Amino acid sequence: MNHYLKDNRSGYIVLMAIIVIGAVAFVSSLLILTISAESSQNSAIIQQSNQAKALANACAEYALDALHQNSAYSGNETLTLGVGNCVLAPINLVADLATIQSIGTVQNTIRKVEVIAQVTVTTEETDPEAEPPAEPISTITVQLQSWQEVGDF
Q1: Are 88 and 108 in contact (CB under 8 A)?
Q2: What is the pLDDT averaged over residues 135-150?
Q3: What are phi and psi of 82, to 5 degrees?
Q4: Rounded distance, CA 100 to CA 89, Å?
Q5: How many CA atoms are closer than 13 Å to the CA of 1, on its beta-carbon side?
Q6: Does pLDDT of 135 surpass 90?
Q7: 101 or 25, higher pLDDT
Q8: C-alpha pair distances (Å), 72 with each of 43, 57, 90, 149
Q9: CA-CA distance, 28 to 121, in Å (whole number)?
Q10: What phi, psi does 52 have (nearest 5°)?
Q11: Cα–Cα distance between 52 and 56 in angstroms, integer?
């Protein structure tokens, strides 16, 4: 009879060990799945943030190019590019310094960029004795002073 009880105890010990190991494996699997899901969600948020920053930068570059083409460019427009849009605030031009404020948005993620550039217009006179008189030639120079991401304007 002792021999029968001893074998039963060994069986219970093995059974309990298997249950404990199974429970640990199950909990570990759940933990790995949870971490994986959170990591995937964080990756999506980081991607949206990078895209929003790229949009804000693209709008700022657009504004710089527009100023180079026309020194009277005033901003105040929204551009839709790819997965989101960007908003250019009205350009603040004081003396020869233009402040460009750009906001890039992808879904609920927003990034903001502020650019300051010096805008200089030089006019070159043409031959005054030409017939008919030629118009003066204007050249617009845009020189970047600062470019930074900001939390708010």
Answers
A1: no
A2: 92
A3: 60, -120
A4: 7
A5: 0
A6: no
A7: 101
A8: 41, 21, 11, 25
A9: 67
A10: -65, -40
A11: 6
The residues, ordered by sequence, that sit 6+ positions from 23 with a Cβ below 8 Å of its Cβ are none
Total count of residues recorded for the chain: 153
Show the CA angle centred on residue 104, arms to residues 100 and 108, nearest 5°.
145
**Distance of alpha carbon 68 from alpha carbon 76, whole angstroms:** 16
- Residue 77 and residue 66 in contact, taking contact as beta carbons nearer than 8 Å: no
Q: DSSP readout, 32-72?
A: HHHHHHHHHHHHHHHHHHHHHHHHHHHHHHHHHHHHHH-TT
* Alpha-carbon torsion, ordered 57, 81, 72, 102, to 10 deg: -40
Structure tokens given for 103: 């906001």
- Name the amino acid, one letter, at 17: A
Residues 34-62: tens digit of each pLDDT: 787 777 777 888 999 999 999 999 999 99
Is the Cβ–Cβ distance between 147 and 64 less than 8 Å?
no
Say if CB 82 and CB 51 are below 8 A apart.
yes
Structure tokens at 101: 């404020």
What mean pLDDT comes out for the span 52-80?
A: 96
